[in-house]
Amino acid sequence: MSLLTTSGLTKRFGGLVAVNSVDLRIEENETLGVIGPNGSGKTTLFNLLSGFFPPTAGRIFFQGRDVTHLSPEERVKMGMVRTFQLVSVFNSLKVWENLAPCVAWKSGMYHSLWRFMTTPAASTWADSLEALKLVGLEGQAEAIAGELSYGDRRLLEIALALSLRPKLLLLDEPFSGLSDVEIAKVLALLKSLKGKITIGIIEHKISMIVDFVDRLCVMNEGRIICEGNPSEVLTNPLVNECYWGKQETLERAGVSGV
Ligand SMILES: Nc1ncnc2c1ncn2[C@@H]1O[C@H](COP(=O)(O)OP(=O)(O)O)[C@@H](O)[C@H]1O
Ligand SMILES: [Mg+2]
């Protein structure tokens, strides 16, 4: 049984069909790449999977359970965790304080944010530090998050996601806005997770993930137009067409670098 499946998943915004009857499957411990030109519906698909938008039609199953109408929080409890295209951390908090509510929530200690922030349990500090170690940020635990580089804030965001012990980690363009050095750091971290948890990764630049993913899924105009192993997908004429049809996008996608 696949870890996640969707059937006929659809999202309309007025007259626009952002996600159009998508049947997706993600196998346990697989790394699935989702690619496609700008505006093809990748982020909307992840918003549907993570419960941020209700679908217009269709169903989502996680571990065989229908989660279509569960809240994002209920999905996180089940192990479905996502990150965002723009890094989402609490800039005014210390690095370790960013982790603390997640760690406490996961251990069932989280009742009141205020009480928690004023008197965090020692175990929360230790667990937060453990999560930071996973991404190599333990030396910056006391720094203010907003003062970290963008790449380190991306690592912090991934640490936040990991502290929730995901079975399925959905990453929306984790390399966007990062320098080459920062990309190498994030990629090394993701490689260390590969095969241990299930990963769904959206990436605009195909060349970035082609060697990393087990399978690629290509979206265009809200539909999955092709899926399979990366080399098959990249030689599929439909994929070339959807990128070649949008010359500007193609260059940004780094297709020539593949
Ligand atoms: N909240 C929204 N309201 C209205 N239209 C949206 C919303 N989110 C996305 N869209 C539209 O849906 C389409 C797909 O967008 P998106 O999923 O962000 O694409 P991608 O992530 O592949 O670039 C685009 O035309 C976009 O303008
Ligand atoms: Mg997007």
Please tell me about this protein's structure.
It is a single chain. This protein has 258 residues and is of the alpha/beta class. Helix content is 38%, strand content 22%. The chain has eleven helices and eleven strands. The strands form two sheets. It has a six-stranded mixed sheet, sandwiched between helices. Strands 1, 2, 3, 5 and 6 form a five-stranded antiparallel sheet that branches. The longest helix is centred in the middle third of the chain and has 14 residues, at 150-163. The model has no long low-confidence stretch (mean pLDDT 88). The protein binds adenosine-5'-diphosphate and magnesium ion. Residues 42-43, 85 line the site of magnesium ion (MG).
Under CATH at level 1, the class of the largest domain stands as: Alpha Beta
CATH superfamily placement of the largest domain:
P-loop containing nucleotide triphosphate hydrolases
Tally of discrete structural domains? 2
Side-by-side strand order of the widest sheet: 7-8-9-4-10-11
The percentage helix is 25-40%
Task: Write down the overall mean pLDDT.
Answer: 88
Poorly predicted sequence stretches spanning 5 or more consecutive residues: none
Gyration radius, to the nearest Å?
19 Å
In whole angstroms, the N-to-C terminal distance is 32 Å
Q: Count of helical segments?
A: 11
CATH architecture of the largest domain: 3-Layer(aba) Sandwich
Regarding quaternary structure, what we see is single chain
Most strands sheet: 6 strands, mixed
Bound molecules: adenosine-5'-diphosphate, magnesium ion
| Helix-strand makeup class | alpha/beta
- Predict the CATH topology of the largest domain: Rossmann fold
Got a strand count?
11
How big a fraction of the residues is strand? Answer: 15-25%
Principal-axis shape equals: globular
